[in-house]
From TrEMBL:
Transmembrane segments: none annotated. Pfam families: Trm112p. GO terms for cellular component: cytosol. Belongs to the UPF0434 family. This is UPF0434 protein BFW38_04835. InterPro entries: Trm112-like.
Amino acid sequence: MDKQLLAMLVCPLCHAKLDYDREAQELLCRFDGLAYPVRDGIPVMLEEEARQLSADEKLEKSS
Ligand SMILES: [Zn+2]
């Protein structure tokens, strides 16, 4: 995904910067514990499309 696009993306709920998980193709908000899907390179920034992160995932390194 485009780095500039990524830098512009924030969580629609809390407006924090998101972590991009390249392997999972997800954008992670560690504050809300949500993972937003990236479909065909297009981030889907909808709370109802987001996946809940597990406790382990929330604890992973935040970069
Ligand atoms: Zn958030």
